[in-house]
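Example record used in the benchmark description.
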Amino acid sequence: MPLTIFEVFLFFCLCSWSPAGVFGDEVKSVSVTEGDSVSLHTDYTDTLRKGSIEWKFGPKDILIAQINRKDNVSTIFNDSAGGRFRDRLKLDQTGSLIITNTRTTDSGLYKVFSSRRETPLDIFNLTVYAPLSTPNIIRDSLSVQNSSSSSGPASSCVFLCSVVNVDHVTLSWYKGNSLLSSISVSDLSRSLSLHLECLDDFYSCVVNNPIRNQTTHLNTQLCQTCSDSVSLIVWISAAGGFLLIVTTVGIFCICRKYRRTDK
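Model output (structure tokens):
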């Protein structure tokens, strides 16, 4: 039976189709904390029994590792990429790349190439995050004095939550599970203030990146100290106001007395 035009066209498309056209279309995102090991596993290594597989790094596609699938002989190029990967790269039998003792400078694109194809088999976008430090909560004593002299509630305090030696994280205040405020931290030292009444200790400050978080809860004693400080400031202010009134009345009485004496 002769083939129809559609069947001929379909047969031609199937014959001309190549898996290289779909390789590397999707970038796989991988995140890890600095110091941990990470394995970049490509799904196509088991299907390529001959030729070699090459791993390249960065926008310039710097060759950092290679494995010959025919005899399973792997080569690590320690001097590539300025030697940043020296003694930290491994290739397993499947051709997957293992990076040990990761550093933030390891972040970037990793591409898998076959010696038989020009397009990448796989592309990985690796992000290495610095370890998170624990947030620090302190009482802003200057803000306590300012709030007590204003028309705000006498028991209100301002607490500062800060984090250091981190980059590209989010710093947030919570009351229980409810988010109160949040900022994105892109530099090494930022603080986030919280104006509250010292009623309970359900407040916490959280710093997090896409893979981890650290939490510090507001200390009840710190809140109590804040309330005592505000009460002391309010008492001093009240005493000062009373003394001012007494002094004013006294001066008025003295002036009136001297005025009568003159007459």
